[in-house]
User: Which sequence fits this backbone?
């Protein structure tokens, strides 16, 4: 019976119409359940496996893999992997190999997760901002390393570029929550646009001596007179981000609330991990030995958001399937 059902379901799923496919698969399973050919448990198993198979064809990860089959994309990916591996072996000879490995690994994962989320829905402004934020986080990791081991540019320059990335990725956190799941930038309030504008001005200030001043003593930089603006922007945006999450969760479905909670945890772990390893340890404990651990902290955000996009979407699809099918038996047998 299961083989027979699987063949019928396979034929229906190849029809190419997602809504019609969902309805027909449910009706087929329900008809056999009513006729006594399937038990409730068997119907449950078939329904869930059908949902998984239907969703597998549409997931962004598979779309990302299909994009990667194109010659240009494959060449770019191999070039990226080659460059990262080459940098690992080259730099590991001059610097701490463990720190270099963590750096390269974190950069690679951030870029891959950002690319996969973007590939899932390239038209989504939220996904675009997430992809841009993953690139900024990668830039932060690189400038973070270069600020301790300057190459080509002066150390103060790398420190200022690092502050640009710090201001930018926290702004990215805020923007992502504002736009999640499918809001447009043009729909933002005047206050929200003002916050974004002030952050952009602060990015420009990061390149001036008002934030970091060059000195002749190690580490060749000290806090500028306006450095407090960085702290105001960082903690201010984090508070606003959590507040936006709270507002969205009050009117959200159970699934959406869970998604927002997961993203909030990722943002908080990422932000405070970076703050502790890059600021508290450096300014208060006067040590840079743990800065490389902030590389892993960045993954808390990118991984949590990617998890929400790829895995938790399944629950939304199950809810949509219930509505599409219009079959009360789904509730009766316990779905």
Assistant:
């Amino acid at each position: 019976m299961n083989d027979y059902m699987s063949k019928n379901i396979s034929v229906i799923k190849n029809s190419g119409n997602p809504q019609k496919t969902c309805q027909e698969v449910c009706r087929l399973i329900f008809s056999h359940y009513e006729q006594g050919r399937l038990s409730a448990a068997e119907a449950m198993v078939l329904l869930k496996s059908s949902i998984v198979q239907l969703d597998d064809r549409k997931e962004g990860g598979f779309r990302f893999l299909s994009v990667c089959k194109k010659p240009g994309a494959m060449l770019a990916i191999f070039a990226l992997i080659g460059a990262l591996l080459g940098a690992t072996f080259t730099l590991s000879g001059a610097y701490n190999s463990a720190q270099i490995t963590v750096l390269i690994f974190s950069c690679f994962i951030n870029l891959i997760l950002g690319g996969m989320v973007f590939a899932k829905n390239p038209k989504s402004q939220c996904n675009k901002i997430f992809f841009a934020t993953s690139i900024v986080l990668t830039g932060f990791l690189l400038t973070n390393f270069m600020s301790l081991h300057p190459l080509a540019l002066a150390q103060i320059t790398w420190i200022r570029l690092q502050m640009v990335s710090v201001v930018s990725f926290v702004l990215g956190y805020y923007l992502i929550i504002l736009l999640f799941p499918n809001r447009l930038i043009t729909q933002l309030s005047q206050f929200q646009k003002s916050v974004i504008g002030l952050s952009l001005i602060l990015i420009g200030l990061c390149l001036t001596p008002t934030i970091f001043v060059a000195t002749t003593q190690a580490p060749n930089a000290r806090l500028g007179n306006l450095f407090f603006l960085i702290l105001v922007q960082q903690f201010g945006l984090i508070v606003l981000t959590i507040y936006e999450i709270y507002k969205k969760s009050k009117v959200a479905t159970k699934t959406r609330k869970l998604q927002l909670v997961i993203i909030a945890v990722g943002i908080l772990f990422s932000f405070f991990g970076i703050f502790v390893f890059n600021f508290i340890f450096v300014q208060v404990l006067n040590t840079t030995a743990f800065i490389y651990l902030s590389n892993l902290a960045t993954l808390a955000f990118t991984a949590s958001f990617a998890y929400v996009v790829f895995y938790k979407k399944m629950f939304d699809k199950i809810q949509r399937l219930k509505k599409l099918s219009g079959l009360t038996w789904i509730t009766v047998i316990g779905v």
Residues 254-284 form the longest helix (31 residues). The beta strands are 212-214, 221-223.
